[in-house]
Amino acid sequence: MDSPTTPTPSLTSFRVLAFDIYGTLINEPAALQTCLAPLLARLPPSHPVPPFPTLLSRFDHYEHEVSASDPSLPLPAIMHEVYARLAASLSLAPLPAEASAFAALKGRAPAYPDTVAAMHALGTHYRLVALSNIDRASITQTLGAALAGVRFDAVLIAEDIGSYKPDRRNFEYLLQYVAREWGVKKAEVLLVAQGVASDHVPAKEMGLWSAWIARGRPGGEEGWEGVGEENEGKVAFRWRWGSLGEMAAEVEGAFGKGEGK
What we know:
- The chain has helices spanning about 30-40, 50-70, 75-90, 95-105, 105-110, 115-120, 135-145, 160, 170-180, 195-205, 245-255; strands spanning about 15-20, 125-130, 155, 190-195, 210-215, 240.
- By secondary structure, the protein is an alpha/beta fold.
- A 6-stranded parallel sheet has the order 3-2-1-4-5-6, with helices on both faces.
């Protein structure tokens, strides 16, 4: 992708789809709500319960803050610290049992209802690559449960890369991998992600084509409350779908019409 004036390519021109996993394929907010319930139940009657979108924003902010401060930290340690900061933001003391639940949150999170069928459909047209800020234990759990039956051609994770998105090293690792293994060029890779700051901002910086899966936050506005003022002018995704199922349907239509062929 050269600039906003570059013509949008056909969906049939890509050879690889690179997916953010948690928040895009996996319903991480649902798992977060479950983990927050015991914490919120300890709030005194005098303390108002923050709306879930507010807590989700704090969760996202703390996770990015902690992972950026020390990319060598394993994910469970990051999640422990995120939990501690969330508890502190509510003036609550952390509890070991709640901290352990947070550390396991991602691996236990369910898939969105449309995910598995959409991935099966997309896999008939492209190589599928996972590019995730995750540890090996959690992704193994996810692949064996929530994403059972989904075939990835490669699984590239932060624990192996040594950094967390939005660090450009993660995207460079992706591009080097697909070039080395399959001879795929950057222009033949489409990044598919919900995360704006973690995925779409670095995608624009690196000239990667990207598609936004704008899933709605529970109790919030559709599209995860937009890209945010802080990201205005920093993203350049050429496709926006409300779900992965919508994307798969449009892809099927494009291949059915023989676009770009």
